[in-house]
Amino acid sequence: MRLPYMNYAGRATQEQIAQFQGLDCRTVIAENEFLDMKNMTSDYYPAIGTRKGRGSATKTLAKPNGIFYKNGLMYVDGTALYYKDQKVGTVTDTEKTFVGMGAYVLIWPDKVYYNTHTGEFGSMVKSFQQSGTATFAPLSEGSAFTKISTEGLSFEKFDSVTISGCTNKDFNKTTVIQEAGMGYIVVTAAITSGFTQASGLQITRAVPDMDFVCESDNRLWGCSSKNHEIYASKLGDPFNWNNFEGISTDSYAVTVGSDGDFTGCIAHLGNVLFFKENTIHKMYGSRPANFQLNTYTLPGVQKGCEKSICTVNETLYYKARSGVVSYDGSTPTDISETLPGGYTEAAAGQYNGKYYVSMKNAKGTYELLVYDPRYRFWHKEDTTQIRMAAYGEGALYYIDGQSQIRTIAGGEEPDLPWMLESGQQMENTMNMKYISKIMLHLQMEKDAKVEIYLKYDADPLWERKATIRSTKKKSYMIPIIPRRCIQFQYRLVGKGNAVLYGISKFVEKGSELNGGL
Q1: Is the model's pLDDT at 495 over the cut of 60?
Q2: DSSP-based three-state secondary structure for 430
Q3: In a shared domain, residues 321 and 195
Q4: Is residue 75 within 8 Å of residue 433, measured between CB atoms?
Q5: Domain end call among 152, 187, 205
């Protein structure tokens, strides 16, 4: 009898995955990328493992309104300002913007300050309302300076003040104090004879209303959407914003003509950047005489995502409308093409050379995502919401969705839940190859646990294939036999610390089973 020939399929070949990348939520992804994950990190690259434990909650706030670090942790709970866990001042019950300059912490929108060296707390704005007789007298005959004396008058030399309510209208202007002492100031103004005034005199050192503020080269910088203006304080003096004497230490102001509201600002690589959603204003120069504002139509910070602005190793990161971008001073680059779109309410910080950003996804759930610039991929941690964050002395402090102050690392979480889910695994199915076995190389700490699941083709259900419980720190080689299919996914669900070092795939050549013409 003549029998048909049998095609020899040959021996199985082994392929290894020994380098794992990060999260990729697109339809088709590489075999060393992951469609979903939980509490994973790039710290073990080229392996992938569980993140380090976060710090435990050090304090729960009733109403968190801000957090900052300046030689110690500062935060606002309701109307109470705390520094190193001691109440140091009372502020309004609104969310705060903090800026550090020297020993000072300047706080907006209240326009108050705290000196971390002396412990002094006060208002940046200073006002005087006349309560007794005021005397105006020339310093000497023919002098270009006038001394104003009255009870309770107290300003500093070189303060820029606005005088109003004077019976001599020549004094009703903004001027710079040339000398000052208890009960008097000296201003530039020439009068032939002195005079007195009984009431109505007002003298104010004003600070502009600003939406966003930062510090650069010993000046404070800020912007106002209402006034369409950008401001800079006097050099070395965060309290004075109206000094215009034509010298290098002057304050500065400029009007901008771009559309839309400001969405954030930051100092970066020697320049100051002011963002709108579709515009970046970049301020160049070192003094008012050579300040130059250039405007670029580029993706700026998304409205409501000003807390996402963060510098990691001199590269700036922020959430734009199109996604998360990196900016090195030239053109913003989208680094979130592997993430789904639709994120809002981004808040971020940097730690250990990585960019930690919490965002609300399209489903209304917060996700804490971590970008590693060294390898240029993302890892997902969990659903932690970072409401606000501050970096200081090697730690990233943040206030979470439960109003607790924590650190992003430095604690122990021995029962940390984690998960890895692959994309579709297929092996050149057009050439009738299939994966006959996979071998997982997994290192687990004592008391750790992992469950391994597979899902085939269009089947919506996961099938559990193995469960491993570790009684000591040990490396496991775990064989998994998938059933014959066109494609499958694997999912690892674990508890405790673990590292996936590699996956071996055993590939065999099959035959045409069905579907032929």
Answers
A1: yes
A2: helix
A3: no
A4: no
A5: 205
